[in-house]
Amino acid sequence: MTQGFATRAIHLGYDPKDNEGALTPPLHLASTFAFETAEAGGEIFAGAREGYFYSRISNPTLDLLEQRIASLEGAEAGLALASGMGAITATLWTLLSPGDELIVDKTLYGCTFAFMNHGLAKFGIKVTHVDLSDPGNLTKAISSKTRIVYFETPANPNMRLVDIETVARVAHASGATVIVDNTYATPYITRPIDHGADIVLHSATKYLGGHGDLVAGLVVGTAEQISEIRLVGMKDMTGAVMAPFNALLVQRGLKTLALRMERHSATAIQVANWLESHPDVGVVSYPGLPSFGQHDVAQKQMSLPGGMIAFEMKGGIEAGRALMNGLTMIQRAVSLGDAETLIQHPASMTHSTYSPEERSAHGISDGLVRLSIGLEDPEDILDDLDQALSLRRVAKAV
Q: Please, what are the domains in the chain?
């Protein structure tokens, strides 16, 4: 019988009896590994025998993390990398060649957007943005040269969703590989492979690590895909290797992921409802709200609405800045998924790699505020938002 999500996140792939009874898996800091014989070393290098020889390719601490994330995502294999961008670049450098087309969603994280449009595009790869919230747009845009269809769901920062199952069906009909960035949802909320995706990526810096003390990336897929990304995209093209200590920290984060995502989501729905009812707040984008434009898609592929909220302040960018500057507990910081509640302004921070014209075209307004709900008491989060908005009202009155 398959064990549950939280049980696998804590126990999979490790038995204390194999490590002198140590309850926590050991940290392997070795850069290189000794061989029993010269012949054994040659066989390991040739792939004829399993084993470790150099931590740029594999390491026992990373191997355990890779097994666990693959299991949690429902994939055959996983690969640990130095950052989320390391996971993205290693994967796409492996799978794309000059002359190929990459179809991506209308909205992407700023550094992903920059890599694709200012990086890949320089090397003869056609990058086409399509509004994938309507799968019919993909049907019109896809061609025989389309190798990959790539998207985030929910999208960073405006929370747009993509129907994974429908988009995957269209992409596969043309022979394209579907890659999903699952950072916002995590496998506890959405498992894209169950809905037809081929490869799933994460910035493990965020919810998987969960404590704001590491930078890391993960990718899962078939054993064949992951082996190719390991030996080409990671080993030779980027060198984006995760440090063993960071792998240990991500393993620690996975142990509490289920609990944390329940708490993030439970608090976020309270905050989203409160924001939606506030007279100074405009549109609130959160999958758990009945007013959310893609609520049906959220119900279809998300078990929880998650911990991320996007909203517009009435009064635009200056109103958003006034709100952020009035906060005392909630921290003005980028990143997300930490124990602390974080707030930021995408247009001037995480998505500043877009030009103003590009932000407008890709659904990232200047007045958008992104809120990552932490693990504090919900009442304290609401009190801080309330006092900051009250300060703004007083300042306007004066």
A: 5-255 (3.40.640.10), 257-397 (3.90.1150.10)
